[in-house]
Please model this.
Amino acid sequence: MKDKIKAILIIAGIFVVLAVLFIVNFFINRIPENPSGTVGNTAGNLYNGGYFCEDSDGKVYFSNSYDNGALYVMNANETEIERLSASKVKSINTGGDYLYYYMSDSSASSGLGFVRRVIGVYRSDKDGGNLETLSRDPAGTLLLVDNYIYVQSVLDNGGINLLKISIDGEEETVLSEEKIYPASAYNGRIYYNDNTNSHFLYQLDTYTGATSTVVKYNMWNPVRQSDYVYFMDILENYKLCRYSLSEDKIEVLTSDRIDTFNVTDNYIYYQKSSDTQPGLVRMSLDGSEEIMLAEGIYNNINTTSRYVYFQEFGNEYATFKIAHGGTEVSEFDAAFNAVPISE
Model:
């Protein structure tokens, strides 16, 4: 009888230990929820590849063009630059204690006569550690809003889905089979233009999942900022405009056709499209104080709190920069100097 009781106690003790270990493991590995209102990156950056992303602590995570797009981190003033991963990344988002990004290529792992490519959507600690796969599908871009990642996922058959993936990777939902580019989020809503038919402006409520029409006007790459939505006007030769939500009014901000743009708290940066005088231009949010910063053709315009970074079209190696409010263009030497020397 005593042996039987002893056996029961041992078994019960094992179950208690296992339960405790399960609970401890659950809390250790649980991904904490992000603060309400979390948005992983700015719309302007994501429309331009999402190669730079600044968090609330002033840390800038970026894809270093001088190191084949490897993931780096630095202070906003470009000090304390550190390499986090050799993988080529884009669409960088940050929220809470984690980074979320698309790995478009990799140093890869090789062996047994093959190279394993590891493209997909990933989450990692902010030091680059504890890398977790959230999706292995090719993606056009991704956007973190609160506790979900919205991914423009490219299917094997060439189709495109909008996926909603929880930050712990446990939930995945197909929200739409339309070609939606998630980049601009404001107050829990994602603003996007229809890419299939009308190019009207729509919004997706991330709380309810409902979609609705905002305005029936042809827009490209909408950026919601406060009362305004900045966009490229498809019917008017891709001029830069802004739409006032409160006044239901559209203002034309440029006489130029533009190729791409980015909006900050004080400025708009855009690439002027011209056969004779193309260049990177800065202006105020209302279209005033327009100034040519650099002649030539540029793309991948990304901004942080201190600088705007950009590249020359056709040259993926060099990155240039200019301070907000400044006019002096220089190369991103700090990133070049931070690249490890191959032995």
User: Anything to note?
Assistant: The chain has a mean pLDDT of 90. The longest helix spans residues 2-29. The two ends are 71 Å apart (CA to CA). The helical segments are 2-29, 43-47, 333-337.
